[in-house]
């Protein structure tokens, strides 16, 4: 697969088959993630991979997120609200959850640099997932459940979860929803 094809073909998958992902494949995917660039080669990321019972317990915690999204969910069309609630309750039955963390930091520039690096790592991960015929969805979640999730996963106290990547064998083929085209200003 060419890089152009991976960039243009990758979509967020929110429904997965009941099939495990080989742990060695997950390790390889993480290796691609850590090849991302980072400011001063800081490599601020750390990944917590949950499968099996821990994954199930993480889903229970994350399903509480909808309690805090009531106003947001009310603004969505009924079908989209139902889909969102179902996804958050089971994470689309993805067999793997990867919690992506970075160091806790109050210094704005360091925080921006860490977020940029982690974003690059997640993009590498997503492209590698797609290239292998798997699917994933990068999600943020309600911070009201972050402490409980961090405790379950054993996240170090000096780190914080910034994103979750759920992955598995896709049970759907998401359609391209288009991209904004008025996003650049060229200056001479």
**Main sheet: strand order:** 1-2-4-3
Largest sheet: 4 strands, antiparallel
Spatial extent as radius of gyration = 17 Å
Low-confidence stretches: none
What is the assigned CATH homologous superfamily?
Answer: NADH Oxidase
Individual helix count = 8
Instruction: Classify the helix fraction into a percent range.
Output: 40-55%
The count of domains is 1
Describe, in plain words, how this protein is organized in 3D:
By secondary structure, this protein is an alpha+beta fold. The chain has a single domain (3-168), classed as NADH Oxidase. It has eight helices and four strands; from the N terminus they run ααβααααβαβαβ. The protein has a four-stranded antiparallel beta sheet with strand order 1-2-4-3, sandwiched between helices. α1 (3-9) packs across α7 and α3 (52-62) packs antiparallel against α8 (146-153). It is globular. It starts with a helix and ends in a 20-residue tail after the last strand. 28% of the residues are buried.
């Amino acid at each position: 697969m060419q890089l152009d094809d991976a960039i243009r073909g990758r979509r967020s998958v929110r429904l997965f088959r009941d099939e495990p992902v080989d742990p060695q494949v997950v390790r390889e995917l993480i290796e691609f993630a850590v090849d991302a660039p980072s400011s001063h080669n800081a490599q601020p990321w750390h990944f917590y991979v949950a499968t099996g019972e821990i994954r199930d317990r993480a889903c229970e915690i994350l399903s509480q997120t909808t309690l805090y999204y009531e106003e947001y969910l009310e603004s969505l069309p009924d079908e989209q609200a139902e889909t969102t609630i179902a996804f958050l309750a089971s994470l689309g039955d993805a067999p793997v959850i990867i919690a992506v963390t970075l160091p806790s930091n109050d210094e704005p520039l360091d925080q921006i640099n860490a977020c940029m690096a982690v974003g690059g790592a997640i993009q590498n991960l997503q492209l590698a997932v797609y290239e292998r015929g798997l699917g994933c969805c990068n999600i943020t979640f309600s911070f009201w459940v972050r402490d409980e999730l961090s405790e379950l996963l054993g996240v170090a106290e000096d780190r914080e979860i910034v994103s979750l990547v759920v992955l598995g064998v896709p049970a759907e083929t998401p359609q391209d929803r288009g991209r904004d085209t008025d996003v650049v200003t060229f200056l001479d």
